[in-house]
């Protein structure tokens, strides 16, 4: 494990962002517990500021800046959630936020960045979805022109420590969990959660969940080395990025397993969260529940926390809407 990423660093982040982000609820679902023969809890980061767990890392990074650094603002690259979270955190300190975003970003996420005052620079890509290298090249160009302070969306100790505060809250409320399930894209959330879980509750299995159509974390975990994401084709737009060297090292050291799920299972899980919990989550959030529904993780008789990572979804294009039967007349 990277010696710089410790439980102490996460606790410092928790103190730094106290009052700036929400302590989100940990909800127990009787219906889904009965369905899975387990005790299922949902950490509702879809109710976090900016609608996503990334607010934790963004606020920690922005509020770590010195007075001299503040004047130059911040820059990041993101398909939407990190963009909105960093724009919000920057606005709260009265500084500029520059965001490298893909043109395929969801309209709802682009609107959120504009709403929080972020400055968008479009990532030019050779493919339909930009590669990690194309994102980073655009962010580097912005930095060279503006002098803005880079805040990596996941491969940054400040970001990882902020995300780890989510696990501090989970374990504070449920210290005897058998499992914690989290989605994995770039790996900031999973890395931070794994550091906290292994320090405070070593018996708790930490499991990363990923789409089959964007399975670089699974392949990297199996290979023991980073396998780049080349052609992600998943509906879970927040999980299309490759692991970074920091996140991979922490995940390799602390995570027990990474599993993958089908696109159909993601949509089914997303719909089930709405039907049962009455909240809308984005596809990336539904991936851990999909792993349970597809029995990629055996949860029977276990106490399980599932992190619902975000709720920023395009309400005009819900993935099950086209196939939904008409409502009965009343």
Summarize the structure.
By secondary structure, the chain is α/β, with parallel strands linked by helices. Helix content is 43%, strand content 15%. The protein folds into 2 domains: 7-52 and 156-317, Rossmann fold (3-Layer(aba) Sandwich); 55-150, Rossmann fold, CATH 3.40.50.
Description of the molecule:
The structure is a single chain. The protein has 2 domains: 7-52 and 156-317, Rossmann fold (3-Layer(aba) Sandwich), CATH 3.40.50.1100; 55-150, 3-Layer(aba) Sandwich (Rossmann fold). The strands form 2 sheets. Strands 1-2-10-7-8-9 form a 6-stranded mixed β-sheet, with helices on both faces. Strands 5-4-3-6 form a 4-stranded parallel β-sheet, sandwiched between helices. It is α/β, with parallel strands linked by helices and 330 residues long. It has helices spanning 7-17, 30-36, 54-62, 67-70, 81-93, 107-115, 132-146, 157-173, 188-200, 216-223, 245-254, 263-277, 283-293, and strands at residues 26-28, 39-44, 74-77, 97-102, 119-123, 149-150, 179-183, 205-211, 257-261, 303-308. Mean pLDDT is 92; it is low at 324-330.
List the helices and strands and how they pair.
Blueprint: H1 7-17, E1 26-28, H2 30-36, E2 39-44, H3 54-62, H4 67-70, E3 74-77, H5 81-93, E4 97-102, H6 107-115, E5 119-123, H7 132-146, E6 149-150, H8 157-173, E7 179-183, H9 188-200, E8 205-211, H10 216-223, H11 245-254, E9 257-261, H12 263-277, H13 283-293, E10 303-308
Parallel strand pairs: 2-10, 3-4, 3-6, 4-5, 7-8, 7-10, 8-9
Antiparallel strand pairs: 1-2
Helix pairs in contact: 1-3, 1-8, 3-5, 3-8, 5-6, 8-9, 9-11, 12-13
């Amino acid at each position: 494990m990277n010696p710089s990423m410790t439980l102490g660093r996460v606790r410092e982040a928790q103190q730094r962002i106290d009052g700036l982000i929400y302590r989100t609820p940990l909800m127990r679902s009787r219906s889904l517990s009965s369905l899975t023969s387990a005790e299922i809890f949902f950490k509702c980061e879809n109710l976090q500021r900016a609608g996503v767990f990334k607010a934790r890392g963004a606020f920690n990074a922005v509020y770590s800046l010195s007075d001299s650094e503040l004047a130059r603002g911040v820059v990041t690259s993101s398909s939407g959630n990190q963009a909105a979270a960093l724009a919000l955190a920057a606005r709260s300190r009265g500084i500029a936020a520059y965001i490298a975003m893909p043109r395929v970003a969801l309209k709802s996420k682009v609107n959120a960045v504009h709403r929080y005052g972020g400055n968008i620079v479009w990532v030019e890509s050779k493919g339909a979805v930009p590669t990690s290298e194309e994102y980073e090249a655009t962010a580097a160009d912005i930095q060279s022109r503006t002098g803005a302070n880079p805040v990596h969306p996941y491969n940054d100790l400040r970001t990882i420590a902020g995300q780890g505060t989510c696990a501090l809250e989970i374990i504070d409320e449920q210290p005897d969990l058998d499992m914690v399930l989290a989605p994995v894209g770039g790996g900031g959330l999973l890395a931070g959660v794994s550091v906290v879980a292994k320090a405070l509750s070593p018996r708790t299995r930490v499991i990363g969940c990923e789409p089959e159509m964007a399975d670089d974390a699974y392949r990297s975990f199996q290979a023991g080395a980073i396998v780049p994401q080349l052609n992600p084709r998943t509906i879970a737009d927040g999980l299309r990025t490759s692991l970074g060297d920091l996140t991979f090292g922490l995940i390799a050291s602390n995570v027990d397993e990474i599993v993958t799920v089908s696109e159909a299972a993601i949509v089914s899980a997303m719909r089930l969260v709405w039907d049962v919990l009455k909240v809308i989550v984005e596809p990336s959030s539904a991936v851990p529940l999909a792993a349970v529904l597809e029995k990629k993780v055996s949860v029977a008789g276990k106490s399980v926390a599932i992190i619902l990572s975000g709720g920023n979804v395009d309400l005009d294009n819900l993935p099950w809407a086209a196939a939904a039967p008409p409502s009965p007349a009343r």
